[in-house]
Amino acid sequence: MLPKHVAFIMDGNGRWAKARLLPRSAGHRAGYKRMTALARHVFACGIPYCTFYALSTENLKRPKEELGSLFSLFSEFFAKEIGAMQKEGVRLSIIGDLSLLPEDLAASARSGVERTKEGTRATLVLALGYGARQDIVAACNRAVDLGRKVDEAEFSRLLSTGGLPLPDLIIRTGREIRLSNFLLFEAAYAELLFSQKYFPDFTDEDFDRALKEYARRDRKFGTLRPQE
Ligand code: IPE
Ligand code: IPE
Ligand code: MG
User: Fold this and answer.
1) What mean pLDDT is predicted for residues 115-133?
2) What is this structure's pTM?
3) Cα of 14 to ligand 1 centre, how many Å?
């Protein structure tokens, strides 16, 4: 079975650059190039939802210089890719708190979402200024504003991932084995895969291998299979 929603924790850009004696910004640029190509490959495999964890709430504590290079890359991505996504029928969705980003960047992100909203072939989700704990607390506060108790399905819809299917497969590159505040509620039954490669080195073929590994996993969701 193919996953319907694959999510990437795109980690290791800085170490990729360091290993080449390049500045960290070069690693982020290489990561962005890879992300754009990998998203196309994921959609070409017939997977309709693909998420990239591009900037966490906690990443906003990094030095100004690094954040500046990340923000310019996101701006460049919106300037260059939105037109192509419109043509390819790919809808952009953003999860995270855009108010944490510079106003002009938040505005281009919102405009990208608006301009691609008719896309029906696939959905590219960018997690920008995203933190799962913060998202869960925001959803709790929305539930309080509703003035009544909510059930699990309704609570899920109050999260920023509300309109998306749950992630089936989460791939983290860059050798660390943790979730780093990513989709903590949604990942309850996701399959997790950790790659030794730094994100800029994670190829389409690595993804194909990840899909084979996913196909071998026995997803039971806590139940027994019918024959058991
Ligand atoms: C991932 O790469 C991109 C972001 C978190 C913004 P890192 O910048 O975390 O790269 P490493 O982990 O330092 O190698
Ligand atoms: C996770 O990577 C966040 C993103 C990829 C956006 P980090 O590099 O921020 O995670 P930690 O600090 O190693 O947990
Ligand atoms: Mg990292």
Assistant:
1) 98
2) 0.97
3) 5
* pLDDT of res. 225: 75
Range of the domain at 68: 5-216
For the CA of 59, the closest atom of ligand 2 is 9
φ and ψ of 108, to 5 deg: -70, -30
Report how far ligand 3's centroid is from the alpha carbon of 12 (Å): 5
Instruction: For residue 88, tell me if it sits in a domain.
Output: yes
143, 158 contact by CB (below 8 A): yes
The answer as to whether 222 is a domain residue is no
Q: What mean pLDDT do residues 131-151 have?
A: 97
pLDDT over threshold 70, residue 227: no
Q: Which ligand is nearest to the CA of 19?
A: 1
Domain count within the chain: 1
Domain assignment present for 32: yes
